[in-house]
Design brief:
- The chain is α+β, with helices and mostly antiparallel strands.
- The chain has a domain of about 110 residues.
- About 20% of the residues lie in helices and about 35% in strands.
- The protein is built from 3 helices and 7 strands.
- Strands 1, 2, 3, 4, 5, 6 and 7 form a 7-stranded mixed beta sheet that branches.
- Helix 1 links the parallel strand 6 and strand 7.
- The longest helix has 15 residues.
Length: about 170
Amino acid sequence: MREVRRTVPAPEDLGTAVIGVPTGSDLELDLRLEAVMEGILVSGSVRGRAVGECVRCLEEVVEDVDAPVQELYVYPERARAAVEDGDDEEEIRELDGDLVDVEPVVRDAVVPALPFRPVCSPDCPGLCPQCGARLADPENADHSHEVLDPRWAELDRIKDVLDDRKES
């Protein structure tokens, strides 16, 4: 068994449309490599920092990510046998000589660990649907709009006409 601790730059597109680990930022790999009958078992964790936007108010969200990793890298002859037995070729991770490509495994671990709908705080009120003001800002504490239901607009117009007649 061999333990490996490395800090590596994050690959491109490590995330979703609303949150992800910025390209080139540090990812900490804490891995154990164990020789098993079929190949090399890689297990451990990946840690990094994801940056995105709050889905309610569009403010920046920073999330620490700590994702577990476990994947079996098989010897080439075992991979061929597994494919012949009907296993999906894309799901089999194969050793390349003495090398292990952990990028696909890191991607498979980190992306599902990211929040699906990141928020800046659990009670974020979001944006005003009328004007787009951020409702969490202190200056918008008593923010409101007088919104008239368009279905009542004609009655409101008639009321204004009657009020004008009474005044004249």
